[in-house]
Design the sequence.
């Protein structure tokens, strides 16, 4: 069946809107690098990463957690991470009782330890439960980060997190695409810094080279 | 697992960092230089994905438009959307399903990610095998006229291949997203067993996933466009019918 010109234009316009957006990540590269250095230090001390978001951003939270828990680069160490949007029982339980604003804060309160890190994902920066989750995390002394979009919303206006990355684009789908690259880079750089902070250990001849698989 | 002092496979991604790692670690690290290197790397990745997206747009704009029209046709006729993938791709499958079911604009449509029911996934995996987790669900839930979308970075996932075979047998429209050379999914497409296949020409799992996110976002947008065009202007919808 021949494609109509109307559909063809819709697809071309959609790709066109993405043309330059992806490159904007580079603008915050140094901030990302600093956040990764701080995360690596916390992982080194035994901290874990707690991630949360709503809707599509909830799937980003799951993606980030699996990225750390089951690295795609062979030989890379698994680092502890947990996505709070995966537990439908707790999510709906807390929402039905205390309210939806509390769904992440409640889990942070009961899961978090001081060396942990919290990462909230909110495409418009206005998600009340993400803000509450981050506020709870800050109160408990966690290192806090946020991935936002648009103008950053409330996440960028207030002291919501130690590091806020804003994908400055009004289209939430494009924001998500920038976030995916951002958290892939985040994961890679955490591992780079993690390796650099290695305590000096005696060589283990039996294991030499195993970590450098392709 | 080795070595904390090893960069593992990452030394391929960050050769300059690997080269200096041992020296810097011993010396306590040169913070500013490392941060600058890391920042440069992040910029490089951003440029890579932008270029890859342009390649995908050049290669797949027309096939994506055709796919959107086919998917929209099925959904307009009462078909439902089923999505599936493993690991990071399962999160994309869920993102795609919720984009259709709870759209930020346009028409909400029935869509289900086959990884969301942990009871079903673990029951099938434990009792039968992980290869059937998606195929069995499609056999039970699917109808002719439905749409099956599977995402895989390698294209080699056995449970995706089984799902597409089941979906094809059941008269469903099949759409695959893959990377590398397309793997097993490319074989299925060549054999006429996969209606639409989009292969992201990259060998980086991360860049493939990022480009696939763009592909399914564009697909969703184009499907909404086609459905809106079919429905006509708001005032005429009742007169024209679906």
Sequence:
């Amino acid at each position: 069946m021949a494609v109509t010109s109307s559909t063809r234009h819709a697809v071309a316009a959609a790709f066109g809107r993405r043309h330059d957006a992806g490159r904007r990540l580079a603008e915050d590269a140094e901030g990302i690098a600093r956040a990764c250095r701080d995360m690596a230090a916390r992982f080194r001390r035994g901290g874990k990463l707690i991630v949360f978001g709503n809707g599509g951003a909830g799937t980003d939270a799951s993606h980030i957690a699996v990225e750390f828990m089951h690295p795609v680069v062979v030989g890379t160490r698994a680092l502890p991470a947990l996505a709070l949007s995966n537990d439908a029982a707790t999510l709906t339980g807390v929402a039905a009782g205390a309210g939806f604003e509390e769904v992440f804060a409640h889990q942070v309160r009961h899961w978090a330890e001081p060396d942990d890190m919290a990462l909230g994902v909110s495409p418009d920066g206005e998600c009340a439960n993400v803000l509450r989750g981050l506020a709870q995390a800050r109160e408990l002394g966690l290192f806090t980060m946020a991935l936002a979009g648009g103008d950053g919303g409330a996440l960028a206006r207030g002291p919501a997190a130690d590091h806020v990355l804003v994908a400055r684009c009004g289209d939430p789908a494009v924001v998500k695409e920038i976030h995916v690259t951002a958290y892939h880079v985040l994961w890679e750089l955490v591992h780079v810094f993690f390796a650099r902070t290695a305590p000096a250990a005696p060589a283990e001849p039996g294991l030499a080279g195993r970590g450098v698989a392709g | 697992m080795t070595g904390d002092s090893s960069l593992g496979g990452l030394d391929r991604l960050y050769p300059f960092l690997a080269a200096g790692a041992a020296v810097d670690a011993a010396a306590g690290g040169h913070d500013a230089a490392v941060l600058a290197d890391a920042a440069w790397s992040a910029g490089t990745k951003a440029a890579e994905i932008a270029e890859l997206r342009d390649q995908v747009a050049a290669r797949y704009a027309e096939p994506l438009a055709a796919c959107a029209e086919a998917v929209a046709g099925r959904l307009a006729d009462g078909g439902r959307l089923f999505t599936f993938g493993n690991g990071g791709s399962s999160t994309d499958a869920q993102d795609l399903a919720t984009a259709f079911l709870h759209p930020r604009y346009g028409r909400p449509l029935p869509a289900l990610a086959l990884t969301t029911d942990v009871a079903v996934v673990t029951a099938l995996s434990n009792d039968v095998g992980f290869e059937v987790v998606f195929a069995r669900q499609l056999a039970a839930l699917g109808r002719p006229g439905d749409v099956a979308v599977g995402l895989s970075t390698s294209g080699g996932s056995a449970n995706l291949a089984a799902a597409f075979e089941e979906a094809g047998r059941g008269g469903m429209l099949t759409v695959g997203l893959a990377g590398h050379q397309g793997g097993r999914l490319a074989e299925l497409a060549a054999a006429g067993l996969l209606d639409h296949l989009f292969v992201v020409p990259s060998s980086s799992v991360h860049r493939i996933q990022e480009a696939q996110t763009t592909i399914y976002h564009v697909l969703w947008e184009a499907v909404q466009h086609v459905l809106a065009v079919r429905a006509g202007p708001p005032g005429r919808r009742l007169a024209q019918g679906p």
About this structure: Chain A is about 50% helix and 10% strand.
